[in-house]
């Protein structure tokens, strides 16, 4: 079976975990601080606060920026549910802005148009998601945010190492969140980190990660136990050394697909704007004709995995009725009916990628 994901665990990761186990310091400790600094420096951010997964990393970002009940946060409806759930965790209101049909990420024109029509003072932030490994148009989004005095949070769960003109995703906004789940571009088993621009906001985020603690058994806010373990941080330090290599392999795999599909009119392949470095967390095709389920079955019969990421626009989730706002998200809804992700992870051999590419091509022939 050619699968959708296969985390790489090297001898270095195993040795690093054994070292932590032998040290006896299993929970949060100096290795976590070391990982926070190393990852923060890699992205080019200011302050790293490690925590337990990409969902808590989003929650901590919003808590650190002070997003509270009744605040509105403008965001994309085409993402994993954790992105917009983090807004609901704080009893704030997700406001969905439609996506660009070519890049699948939030459309700055639609964001601007929505703000022109609906802006009110309860709108506090924009939460962008750099989806599938491609960054959103951050220079444009930061300008819009400045004009309306909105904070910016970058959900980078799928974009470790993605760049715009050499600047890494996660270094543009007021806060950024990353996931280190095993299927991600780098992993720590489970894990997450929140990066902050402002030191006071980072300190507040860090407080929320550790029960809102200001001193031993003294707490001045309702906090959580979101502390990363030293075991996860040790894995993360080793994986970070491999991240650029993993991403090169993903890009090489994507290049094989791009070349194979160049003359295939039935599908759209991932669009990469000039100056952007895509890190292909997913290689997602969009069917212009044919039946997605049928293609998926055809591939499965040939022992090739594929995944619908994502089958619904977030406004269609049953429990989002009445808790979100939006005007028109028809591109997100239509896109969710057409996309199919193919295996692109770095453990695939070029032959395996070619096998998948040939199968897709032969399906449409
Ligand atoms: C865009 C996005 N945001 C947030 C998350 C949440 O990360 P985690 O699964 O580590 O909680 C994910 C995970 O798939 C994601 O894809």
Structure description:
This protein is of the alpha/beta class. It has two domains: 11-97 and 105-239, Aspartate Aminotransferase, domain 2 (3-Layer(aba) Sandwich), CATH 3.40.640.10; 243-364, Aspartate Aminotransferase, domain 1 (Alpha-Beta Complex). Helix content is 39%, strand content 16%. It is built from eleven helices and 16 strands. The protein has an eight-stranded mixed β-sheet, sandwiched between helices. α2 runs parallel beside α8. The protein is globular, with a radius of gyration of 20 Å. The model has no long low-confidence stretch (mean pLDDT 98). It binds pyridoxal-5'-phosphate (PLP). Pyridoxal-5'-phosphate is lined by residues 53-55, 79-80, 82-83, 129, 155, 157-158, 179, 181, 192.
How do you describe this structure in short?
The protein is an alpha/beta fold and 365 residues long.
Essential attributes:
Aspartate Aminotransferase, domain 2, Aspartate Aminotransferase, domain 1, alpha/beta, binds pyridoxal-5'-phosphate, 11 helices, 16% strand, single chain, 2 domains
């Amino acid at each position: 079976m050619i699968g959708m994901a296969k985390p790489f665990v090297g001898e270095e990761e195993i040795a690093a975990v054994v070292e932590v186990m032998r040290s006896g310091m299993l929970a949060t400790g100096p290795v976590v601080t070391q990982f926070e600094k190393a990852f923060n420096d890699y992205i080019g951010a200011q302050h790293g606060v490690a925590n337990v997964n990409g969902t808590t990393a989003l929650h901590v970002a919003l808590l650190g920026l002070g997003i509270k009940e009744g605040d509105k946060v403008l965001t994309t409806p085409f993402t994993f549910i954790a992105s917009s759930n983090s807004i609901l965790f704080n009893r704030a209101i997700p406001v969905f802005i439609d996506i660009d049909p070519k890049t699948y990420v939030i459309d700055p024109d639609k964001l601007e148009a929505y703000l022109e029509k609906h802006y009110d003072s309860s709108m506090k932030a924009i939460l962008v998601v750099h989806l599938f490994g491609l960054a959103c148009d951050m220079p444009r989004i930061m300008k819009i945010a400045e004009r309306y005095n909105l904070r910016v949070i970058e959900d980078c769960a799928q974009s470790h190492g993605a760049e715009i003109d050499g600047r890494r995703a996660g270094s543009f906004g007021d806060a950024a969140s990353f996931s280190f789940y095993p299927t991600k571009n780098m992993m720590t088993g489970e894990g997450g980190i929140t990066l902050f621009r402002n030191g006071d906001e980072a300190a507040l985020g860090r407080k929320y990660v550790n029960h809102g603690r200001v001193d031993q058994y003294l707490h001045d806010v309702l906090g959580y136990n979101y502390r990363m373990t030293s075991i996860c941080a040790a894995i993360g330090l080793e994986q970070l050394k491999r991240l650029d290599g993993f991403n090169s392999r993903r890009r090489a795999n994507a290049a094989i697909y791009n070349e194979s599909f160049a003359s295939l009119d039935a599908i759209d392949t991932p669009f990469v704007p000039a100056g952007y470095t895509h890190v292909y967390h997913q290689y997602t095709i969009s069917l212009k004709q044919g039946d997605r389920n049928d293609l998926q079955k055809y591939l499965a019969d040939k022992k090739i995995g594929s995944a619908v990421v994502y089958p619904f626009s977030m406004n269609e989730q049953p429990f989002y009725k009445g808790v979100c706002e939006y005007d028109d998200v028809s591109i997100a809804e239509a896109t969710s009916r057409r996309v199919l992700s193919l295996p692109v992870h770095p453990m695939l051999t070029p032959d395996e990628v070619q096998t998948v590419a040939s199968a897709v091509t032969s399906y449409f022939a």
